[in-house]
């Protein structure tokens, strides 16, 4: 699918005050080289405070920087979802793996948000799942519902339970994982969320569902409950206790990026599914218990 292009807008912070625009762009968007950014500048694709830029300018704090990316053909992604719950205030769907929740990372139109809003224009997601993660995504249709759900999202009032297929055989039946999560260096995109002693407090509870010691490789299936909502938390937490997800291209045994050319956060190949979501309806107060059926990949690899 060819999209309509997009204007990526950022505000220059004091951290970058005084740098040349070319240097700033190369550090802000490291997916392109300095030479590639200079070509974009030569093609009049970047403005600073509305004025077409050459790249040699020094940026100052507070300036508005816009990169006008021309239309591009987006990678293919699934174009379907299953409705699990629908009323005047909420919509819950089962997202397939491979479909981004929100625009980003080269996807603008091939996203769950765009697909849902074609049918329900006033629906906005309360949270997001990683592109390769499948399972329940909850949308709010009203500002009142969105406000109440957002306030309670990372509290015990909303129970989020995932199924994860991990490498190795777990020695314990249950784990309380408290590994802090923060930004660490990544060779391709500058930085990425990972296990970091100086990161933000995080908590996951992982319970063993089954073990498959005779499979190749040996695996453990975990049921994981989240008590915080850090980026890629389950992938990082299980890796940090020595059980990275099967097929994870990014995180290794310590919860850090793999040493040899780690993948990107949106890359697929792993098995993680948002299976259960339990909460009280933000408007009616009734108990809502949602379940999304496991995708076939879990049983095929166990």
What report would you give on this structure?
This protein is α+β, with helices and mostly antiparallel strands. Helices cover about 15% and strands about 30% of the residues. It has 6 helices and 16 strands. Strands 5, 6, 7, 8, 9, 10, 13, 14, 15 and 16 form a 10-stranded mixed sheet that branches. A 4-stranded antiparallel sheet has the order 1-4-2-3, with no helix packed on it. It has a two-stranded antiparallel ribbon with strand order 11-12. A hairpin with a 3-residue loop joins strand 5 (about 80-85) and strand 6 (about 90-95). Helix 1 (about 20-30) crosses helix 2. It starts with 5 loop residues before the first strand and ends with a helix.
- Helix amount, in percent? 10-25%
Q: Would you count the extended β strands for me?
A: 16
Tally the helices: 6
Q: What is the SS-derived class? A: alpha+beta
What percent of residues are in strands? 25-35%
How far apart, in Å, are the first and last alpha carbons? 35 Å
Major pleated sheet:
10 strands, mixed
Mean pLDDT metric: 94
The coarse overall form would be globular
Q: C-alpha Rg, in Å?
A: 21 Å
Q: What are the secondary-structure elements, in order, as H or E?
A: EHHEEEEEHEEHEEEEEEHEEH
Catalogue the unreliable spans: none
Write down the oligomeric state: single chain
């Amino acid at each position: 699918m060819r999209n309509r292009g997009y204007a990526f807008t950022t505000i220059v912070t004091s951290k970058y005050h005084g740098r040349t625009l070319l240097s700033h762009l190369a550090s802000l968007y490291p997916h392109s080289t300095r030479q590639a950014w200079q070509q974009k500048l030569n093609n009049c694709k970047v403005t600073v405070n509305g004025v077409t830029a050459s790249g040699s300018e020094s940026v100052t704090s507070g300036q508005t920087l816009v990169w006008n990316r021309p239309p591009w053909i987006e990678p293919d992604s699934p174009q379907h979802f299953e409705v699990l719950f629908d009323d005047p205030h909420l919509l819950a769907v089962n997202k397939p793996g491979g479909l981004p929740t929100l625009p980003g990372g080269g996807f603008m139109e091939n996203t769950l948000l765009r697909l849902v809003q074609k049918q329900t224009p006033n629906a906005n997601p309360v949270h997001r799942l990683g592109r390769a993660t499948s399972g329940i995504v909850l949308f709010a249709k009203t500002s009142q519902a969105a406000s109440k759900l957002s306030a309670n999202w990372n509290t015990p009032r909303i129970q989020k339970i995932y199924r994860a297929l991990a490498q190795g055989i777990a020695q314990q039946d249950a784990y309380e994982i408290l590994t802090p999560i923060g930004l660490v260096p990544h060779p391709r995109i500058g930085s990425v969320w990972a296990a970091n002693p100086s990161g933000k407090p995080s908590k996951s509870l992982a319970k063993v569902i089954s073990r498959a010691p005779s499979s190749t490789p040996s695996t453990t299936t975990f049921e994981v409950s989240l008590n915080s909502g850090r980026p890629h938390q389950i992938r990082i937490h299980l890796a940090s206790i020595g059980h990275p997800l099967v097929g994870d291209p990014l995180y290794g045994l310590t919860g850090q990026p793999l040493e040899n050319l780690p993948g990107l956060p949106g890359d697929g190949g792993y098995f993680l599914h948002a299976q259960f979501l339990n909460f009280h309806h933000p408007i009616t107060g009734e108990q809502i218990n949602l379940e999304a059926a496991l995708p076939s990949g879990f049983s095929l690899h166990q």
